[in-house]
Each structure stands twice: as structure tokens, then as C-alpha cells.
């Protein structure tokens, strides 16, 4: 889970495992209620293409593809240490996960034969794995490799350690069974965390082995690491001995990057690459209208928010002031006018796709709690609560989030708060001013716009963005909350019973919507574009899963 | 003063300049808001111990002056540091990225010289004729249009609309054809040129326009010189006058401009590399700044600063070598 930096889009991954990874964005949006001719929002489900099958399977098996990523990879291909989404896009094809995502945010067994047996009140998990899986070096994948993959985060002091701190031990029962004990029950475990990539223990024994492994990884996945030029390209070749079905059609896939969006669009239009990631909002229609190009889109678990300074000395510590600000503009209109092709407005502190696993009553919450555009109500709430010369500063990165900040400020100006101002900052400065600011004054900011990307579990959002322990690390609202607010978030994290967690999260999210320490803004979609000869490509909600070139849900080949 | 002594003097003079560059860059980079480690790990659930370990690893926990002195000590031993963001030695990154940038800048200069000098001469010899007017307009547009914009327009026309040339990337002639899947070296050479054409023109247009204007002015001045009039009076053919008398004298300012414009070219390379997705030093520099990768910023600054200073020294020496009237500093 990671924040999106100004120069990057989705960069880091929360957990390094194949399925357990999630990337974060930074951003937030707002809008006015009546002054835009908003475009219609795109519905990603309209782009769920039918499955395709090649007429000539042999020809399909000769095909290759070049995929252009939107950011440079860190070139860390060892899943234990990799924490950028773009390296993980590569390593996901080299390694198999113990569990992997289905076509949404549900986990399904891959190396594991089934879902685990759970014992000891959710602190012991027993995994059985498939027999006959071979790593690319010819060695068999056994329970020992799975145990190693769980423990390596701690043993090797990985930067991903925080996501696996709850793992107490991983013991081999026999060649195909492993027992993982947790120090305490961990709510997201079954939904996300246990989906580690399985790495071969024998290839990673010494420090020098691991260094070599990081740039020449050996997995058991459908593709074999073939050629690599630092910061230029990575080429993977089909694993001819892949143990699972479907067997990949593609003979070869090459990953390159192009960080400049305009140049990337130029590449796909000129046919210089086969597929690109991340289609900007403004280029969507042009690509969609191009007969030689097919656009792909999927909802994603990204979450943008407008967060307020709730410290006592800030006027925004008053919930009426926060609600008043939120009533000055319409989030829906902003998204419709500014990001209609790539985002959807939110009504709760989790994205809709996350809610597919939980079924919280988001529509009811939208109606009951979410502050819509209502300037009269805004004036009423703000009058008396703040001085006439109130001059709040809203800080944001200088992209669409800056546009939102400007829009909110314009609306505040319109109802008489002429001192309101929007300030766009580079990402380092923004973080210093907000998240890493130990004692932010009202002059530093009264609201900021950032974002986050999680996964199927609300913990990813609620713990990192709202729990008091994350102040100064991931957020800076200093919201004290009700007596049980922070305790409930922490408790839900350490519960294995999902129904109990549901109840706790429901209360927490309703409080967030009522008290508005931050306003849920919108969720970005994952987008891609490919030449029309690229077949059976489907966008996945998790950015690090794209391009998903071989799975139960798609098997890409090129027909050119 | 001999050429060798003159050169040594210029090199010694360059040392404080380079030290000044490193001090200013080091201070500015470190005073910039943001923490490189947190930027690197942003958004992750990370232990404070992990952050502290990384800070210790890169010496970020030590005072600024101490870090600077340590850094400069390492630089003197040829160690430009370690990139925090990329976890690679800065020298290795620079070595990898230098080739594409040099290829781009040198080809842009070659393009500029190959077009500017003939056009400048033609404009000068046909002063106030339509050819002159056209060339001046071209020069004006070239000087006033940023390289990245020219690049985007070129991509739009030649890559997207016409499909004649690739829109991005370079093919490196020093690599094996197999690496690109080409049939052999002729195809490698062909593809190298195809890929280089658009970025070369995008970056070289500004240089071309600048040089052309200077060339035209200098040629006009030269053609009006007393020695040219004398040659004409002696009946020397116009072609010989142009080639032997006017042209040579007119090239001296060109040499100066080439040297001094090196910084402009490197600056233009940053955006050109971005637009054409070229993995050169310019793009690396931009990304280093964005990620507050101090040691990488310093390493690139030192290399570019050194290149610029060396370029200026070479210009001075060339100038003195080519024009006998320029002395190495002794008094007449």
C-alpha cells in the first residue's frame, strides 16, 4: 500500500507477496455543484471484454509482446525485498503465489491446494501445497520453500518487514505441508497477507546469493527471467515446463518504461509498443476512437481523501467547520468534469471494489452522511464557527489534486471567505508540511489532499490513515475520535473473526463520515491501452498484477 | 606563456569553480524539503528501525558538513557515492547513462553544424534576398521554440501521422545486433540512425538556429572586410574569397559559441530525453531531483560541471590555437 508521489503514479507495494501487494496513490479531489457540464463517468464494467481464443494456437505460441510501464522499476525482483509495483509486475510472472488474486480482489489457491485450515483462534494456519511444482532451476518447490518465504522478511530485515511482523514461526510438517503461527490474530491475513510469492530457499542462502537473486530471480511461475538491462528492459521467456494450466501463449514478454505520459501515448499510437499502462484522462477518448487501439480499464482499490487538521488550535478541529467546507463543493461534479474517464467519486473511507468483499451499505451512507454540495448549509455551518477573515490553506500536489484544492478555495471565496487559499507543493515539501510535521499549525495547513491504495481489507485504509499510531507516518489529522475509535481500529486488526471485524469497522467508518477527519474523495481506475492485435488482455484491479498475461481469466497473445 | 602552461593554468582555475559548484549543490539539495528515505518508503508500513537503518547506511544521520567532507573525500578517490533510490553506485549509473546522452548531444551538435554553417553562408551571400529572409525566420523560430515542443511536434508528424520514424528510445550502436533482434550490423546502423533522427533534430534545432544567426552575421562582416576588398581588387575568384578569406575568419565566434552552448545543450537534453524516452543523464538528473537522491544529484552535477568547465577550457585553447592573434596571456 503506498502513496502516489508527484512524479510517480503508483509506486510502492504494501506487501511484497504476489497477491498481498497493494500500491498507494496520493491525491484527493473536490468540485462544485453547478458550474460544470460534467461528462458522464466511465463504467469500467463496460470494458470487460469477452475472452478470446486464437485460431492458430501454434502461431499464438510464437508471439511476443512489449509492455510499457508508466514508471521506472526499482529493479528489485526478489519478492522478499521488492516494494515497488513495477518490479512486482515483472516478478509476478516469474513467481507463483501461495494464493493469487482472482479477476477481482478475492484470493484463490495457486501453490496451495486449498484455503488453509485455521486453528488456535486464528493464530495457526496449516497450508498444503501442490506436489510436482518445479522452480526454473529444476528443483521441486516444497513446504520448506514456503516456510522460508514466510520467514525471510524477518530474517533478512526486509523493508517489507512491517507487513509480516505478526508471523511468529513457519514450520515444515512434511514436504507438502507447512504450519504458520502468528503472534496474534491478524484480520487481513486470509484476505491478503498470506498470498506470498514462493521463493526457492536454495537460491537465497547467502547475502551474495540474494543479491544475485534480486536481479536474476528464479521462480516457479509461467515465465522465466531471460534478459535484463538495468533501467532499460526486462525480458521474460515462457516457462516451457510450467506446472499449471493454462500454459501461456506468449513466447516472450519485454517490459520497458516510459514515464512521460504524452510520449507513452505517442508510442502506442505510433505502434512503437504493443501495450502501455496508465492512460491519462484527457487521452482516453482519443485512444478509444483509434481503430488500431483498444483501451482497458478496471476499478482499483485506490482511495483519495481530503484530510483536515484536527489539532485544537486549528479552526478545522470543529466538525462543523469540516462539514461546512465539504458542503461548499460537489465531489461528484468535480470527478465528472475533471476525471470522468479514470475515476469515480467515493462515499466511504474504502473504495467500492474493497467493499465487494464486505458489503457495507455504502449507498445508504452516501445518502445519510456524505456531505453533498449545499452552499447554504456550508454558510450556516461556517458562520459563527470561524471568523469572517478566516484564511484556511489547503495544500496539495500540483496535479488534479491541486485543481481540487483550487476549486474548494474558489467555493469558499464565493461564500465570503476571501482569505482561503490553495497551495500546490512538490511531494517532498508536501509531506514535510503535513504528514511528517510533528506539530502542524493552522498556518501549515487546514486541509491536505493525498491518497492511498490498499486492497480487499479495510484495515489497509482505516489503520494507516486513521489510527493514532500512524500519525507522523501516514497521516496528520490528529483526530482524537470517540472513546473507542482508535481502539476499535486496532482491535479489528487483531481479530480473525470477520463478522466481528465488520461490526467494528462499520462503527469506525460511520464515525469518519459523521465527524469528517477526512472526506473520502474518489478512487482511480487502473487503465491500459494496447494495439488491437493484442488479444485476451484484461485489466486487473491491482496495478502490480498488470499486465496479467496468463491466468484463468486471460491468456494473452498477439495476432500480428 | 606556452600552450601547456596556459592549459595548466586554466585547469587550476577550474578547481575552485568545481568546488563552488559542489558546495552550492550539496547545500541546496540537502536544504530542499523532504526526506529521501521517507520518499523512498512512502506509504508503506515501515518500522522506525528500518528508516534508521537506511539513514545510517547512507550516512544521513550525520551533520551536513561532515557528510560533505566525507563525500568530497570519496570523490577524490573516484567514488561518487551510492544512489539511495536506485541502490547502485553513482559511477555505474553515470557510466550506463553517459553513452545515450553523449550520442544525443554530439549528434545534435553535428546536425547543428552541418546545417547552420551552410545556411548561414548562403544567407550572408544572398543578404536581403528571399533565401536570407527564410533562413532568418527559420533561425528565429528555432531560437524561440523549446526543444521539447519541437520534439512533440516531430513525433506527431513523423511517428504518429506518417509512421516513418520511431517515437521514442534510442538504439545503441555499441550493442550487439542480437540484443535488439536485428539481422546484423547494417540493420543496427540503420535503426540507430532512424531512432536518433527525431531527438537529434529536436535538440539540435536551437543550436542550429543560434549558430546560423552568428554564422550569417560573421560572414557578412567578414565579406565586408578590407582584406576581402583587397582580394577582390586583385581579381581573386569569389569562391576562393569565400572559402579562404571570409569563411575562416568568421568561424572563430562559432567555436566560442559551441563551447559555451554545451550547458544549453545538456539542459535541453533533459527534456529531450524525457520526451523521447531516452535513458540518458538528463532524465536521470530529473528523477534524482524528484526523489531527493542526494548522492546522485551530486554525482551528476560534478560530471556535468566538469564537462562544462572542460568544454570552456577546450574552447579557449582551440581559440588560441586557431587564431594566432590570440595569445596565451603574455603582454606584447
Task: Quickly list its features.
heterodimer; A: 560 residues; alpha+beta; five-stranded mixed beta sheet; B: 332 residues; mainly alpha; MetI-like fold; two-stranded antiparallel ribbon; 15 helices; 75% helix; 1% strand; MetI-like_sf (chain B); MetI-like (chain B); membrane (chain B)
Supply the number of helical segments of chain B. 15
**CATH superfamily assignment of the domain at 90-290 in chain B?**
MetI-like
Give the termini distance of chain B in whole angstroms: 12 Å
Main sheet characteristics of chain B: 2 strands, antiparallel
Find the CATH topology of the domain at 90-290 in chain B. MetI-like fold
Coarse structural class of chain B:
mainly alpha
**Termini of chain A, distance in Å?**
37 Å
Can you put this structure into words, describing what you see?
The complex is a heterodimer of chains A (560) and B (332). Chain A has 560 residues and is of the alpha+beta class. Helices cover 27% and strands 19% of the residues of chain A. In chain A, α8 (319-327) runs antiparallel to α12, α15 crosses α16 (485-493) and α16 (485-493) packs antiparallel against α17. The relative contact order of chain A is 0.19. The mean pLDDT of chain B is 86. Chain B is globular and about 85 Å long. Chain B has 15 helices and 2 strands. Chain B has a domain at 90-290: MetI-like fold. At the A-B interface, α6 and α14 of A face α3 and α7 of B.
